[in-house]
Amino acid sequence: MADQAVRPPRLNRRWMNVVLNMALDGALAALAILIAGWLASPSAPLPNPPALAMAGAVAIWLIGVPFGLSRLHWRFTSMRDLALVGGAGVTAAVLLSLLMIGVGLDLPSPGYPLLLTFSMLVCLTAPRLAYRLLRHPVMPSPRADVSSAILVGTGETTELFLSALARSAEPPYRVTGLVALSARHTGRRVHGLDVLGAAEEAEAVLAKLAGHGGLPDLLIITEPEFSGAALASLLAAADKHGVRVLRAPSLTALSPADQGQIQLQPIAIEDLLNRQQVALDRDGMARLIAGRRVLVTGAGGSIGSELARQVAGFAPASLMLLDNGEFALWQIDLELAEKYPAERRLSVIADVRDAARMQALCDDFKPELVFHAAALKHVPIVEANPLEGLQTNVLGTKAVADAARASGASLMVLISTDKAVNPSSVMGATKRLAEMYCQALDVAARQQGGMGVVTVRFGNVLGSTGSVVPLFRRQLAMGGPLTVTHPDMQRYFMTVREAVGLVLQASVVGAQGGESIKHGGIFVLDMGEPVRIVDLARQMIRLAGLRPETDIGIRFTGLRPGEKLFEELFHGSEQPVPTGYPGLLMASPRVADIALVQEALAEISAQGSNGNAAIALAALARLVPEFVHNADGGNAPLAVCEKAG
After folding, report:
1. Contact 308/321 with Cβ under 8 angstroms?
2. Pairing with 466, which of 42, 51, 67, 548 sits 20 to 30 Å away (CA)?
3. Which of the following is catalytic: 377, 419, 431, 564?
4. Domain covering 147-267, topology
5. Quick check: 254 pLDDT over 60?
6. How many CA atoms lie within 13 A of 598 on its CB side?
7. Is the domain defined by 282-623 classed in CATH 3.40.50.720?
8. Burial 465-485 (b: 16+ CB within 10 A, else e)
9. In DSSP terms, which residues pair with 584 in a beta bridge?
10. Can you list the positions of beta strands (E) in 225-273?
């Protein structure tokens, strides 16, 4: 009953709008005929016959049906709407002119058809455009106390942002100019605003504005793809002149602007990675994964969960997610359930160190492809708990590999780390020993048949659990200071999505085998140039709109046990070998005898069971002779701490 009571007024209002539109269009068409007649013959301006004006109204009503004129909303008239209205007006003018000639009426002048066409265009479009501008001015005048801003982006993205801003009742920003992504747009105008220069000329643009006292408070980046070196250069120029840089929300998030709620966002540190996107063999990945049973260990972690996401996208026959953390496992399971509801998926809580449990799971699931991402990765934690690191990173890897091989898996992929090269930490040494075991298995498999093992080594992943970026974000939210262990510390960084994409690429190459693949060779991801951690800290402070060492301090705490200043991707005995795939190299193998490795693992397992960490670490050091343990962390000089003023 309530619905029936409400519906008629809505229907009446809709039909009233249609009737009003038709009445206005008819009146405007009639006015166009009067204006055209007057222009054609000022001495006899009235139409002949008088019913011609009414004919104009009828013509626009009839022609307006296929053009949908009666349904157009004047308040939200767009360029497409104006084109439709103009097309209807031109069509009506042509038909009326032909009608007059066909019935033998004298035209007021030879140019009357052109005058009528012009009049129809102006009379039908100009009122709509005027109404649109009155209701939604191009840029309402902001308050004097709002921040001034310069937009950085393409013409399309800046126009969309300006349109959203124009719909705000009280614009939160006063846009004073534009910076384009290309120099060819310099000197042009968009919505009445000058294009002051290109993004690569930001330093010169800001210097010129500073000289005239016109520096903006903000640079707002409207182009979502603007990142890398170009973004870093823009940030450096803005930082020099004390101008904040923020990013506009995504195009689909601009709708709240009607309520004046454009929420600018800080620049993500991931956007500053100067890395070219590499072409990946997606077809090869599909051939490797589609229709196969896949096991991902450590599926709740940063790397494991991204592996699960990307693997799920290639339609495996079934996907087993294995982790020893309930909440992390639940999160990735829920995400995949929402994205791939039809995909067969198993979520298993298990500890990779439990060899019997791993064997039982593999015997039941019979994985064809195994991605082993489970590991203890936090250097200070493993230093404090060395036996746990040995059992998880070494014995856990052995348990997974042995179980997968015994159950008939064709390929296992081990996720390793740059900390395994010339390790100074227990964590790094355990990962190197895991590499050695997997290398030995791979050599045996390629000689005798059986499961191949691909090892992939890379550096830090931005934003991963326990990494420095989330730590800095938390410290920023608390007001600082940001803690850095040493002013000279450097690390390699890569986004998690890129790293996992290259892991899958390495898996494809490793599965193919052939002469180009060295037996026991380790795939190494091209990590680009290392980044100084203190520079990363300063950049994150700037991205938050604050000043390093002034608003937010940086405190040097000293190297922690197991840490070293520089990480390496290749050992001195490992020569980089091209793979033919961008972003992917191979370290020439340093393969240990499988019997020696197994003997050392047996000793480590026995000492771990007895709780004898010293003897277990001694066995680790014998098998990884390059392991130089930085047990106290105090092997590098510490600079004076920086403090906020």
Report:
1. yes
2. 548
3. 419
4. Rossmann fold (3.40.50)
5. no
6. 8
7. yes
8. eebbbeebbebbeeebbbbbb
9. 525
10. 244-247, 265-266
